[in-house]
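Study this protein:
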Amino acid sequence: MIRIPRSIIDGIVLQARAELPNEACGLLAGRGEIAEHRYGMTNADASPEHFTFLPAEQFQALRSARSEGLDIIANYHSHPVTPARPSEEDIRLAFDPNILYVIVSLADAVPVVKAFHIRQGIAENVPVSILEDIKGCL
C-alpha cells in the first residue's frame, strides 16, 4: 500500500493538467509507505506518450529528500488519454523493483490514481490510500 496526502494527489493532478497534452512526471519521497513530499519534474521528452526525467532535477530531488531524511518511494507520471495502468513501455522501462510506479489518468472527467510494483516485467496493483493532509507533509 501507498498512503498519499490529498494535497500531494491534488498537486500531481494540477501538474498533469498543466502539462497537457504531454505526460507529467515526478518523484514521491517519504518514510515507509507514506508519501510526504512531491518533486514535480520536467518531462524532457515533452511527449504525450512517454517521459524522461532531467538528470539534474532527479539528482536535486534525491539530495533534497536525503537531507530531509526521506527516501524516494515512488515515481509518478500521467496518462493524458489512457487508463491508469502501466503501458508496455512503462513496464519495459521500470528498472527499480524497490519503488512504486504511480500513474494518474486524465482520460475521464475525474482523474484516476493507481500505483503498481513492477518487477521482472510484471505489474502488480498496489492499493492507494488518500490521506487527509498531515502536518509537515509539504
In short: The first helix runs from residue 6 to 18. The chain has a mean pLDDT of 94. The beta strands are 2-5, 25-31, 34-41, 71-79, 100-105, 112-119, 122-126, 128-131.
